[in-house]
Known about the structure:
Elements: E1 4-6, H1 43-54, H2 63-74, H3 79-89, H4 93-102, E2 114-119, H5 122-126, H6 129-140, E3 154-159, E4 171-173, E5 176-179, H7 186-193
Parallel strand pairs: 2-3
Antiparallel strand pairs: 1-5, 2-4, 4-5
Helix pairs in contact: 1-2, 1-3, 2-3, 3-4
The structure holds FE2/S2 (inorganic) cluster.
Residues 119, 121-124, 161-162, 164-165, 168, 170 line the site of FE2/S2 (inorganic) cluster (FES).
Amino acid sequence: MSPRRAKRTDVDIENTRALEPKAGGTGAKAPPSPGKTKAGADGNELKAVDEVLSHYPAEEPSLIMVLQEINDRFNWLPPEAMNRVAGALDLPLAKVLGVATFYKALSLEPKGERTVKVCLGTACHVRGAGMLVDELKRSLEVEVGRGISPDGAYSLETVNCVGACAMAPVVVVEDNYYAHMEPGNIAKMLKKERPK
Ligand code: FES
């Protein structure tokens, strides 16, 4: 059975600009050390951070917008960038990390070009979403919420109900909803979604 591209629903967690808090996402956690990450912010990237900072007043209310723009540019929030933001906005690093940890749309882990999201809501769970997670972990060589596939293309996340229970189990890649997924369809879906 081939993966069916589902009609896009009204619920699109990736594209919403309203930042949603992460489940249990309170408090700061230490960012990954540069040595453990695929790519930290180098000199050029710090220039990009400075450019983002220049778009906003150097004050605390700018924090979320600054973090969102940096996350959009790098696809994550490198530790060096967090230090830069804390210094520029005259905020404790713990405050910056607390906000970065709280919102789903912000990531303290490097991500692949595409994030594969498996719904683990009740309807998807009872229809075998766990097996999809296992197959994706195996084929992408990543853990949920951690790591990038060896080709740099993919990261893996699980999400709560995406509002498409009739299509369960559902996998979402960027704007595309894949309905009634089975482990045997994963390879075909990844091939289709691979960044050019
Ligand atoms: S539980 Fe997966 S879409 Fe609702």
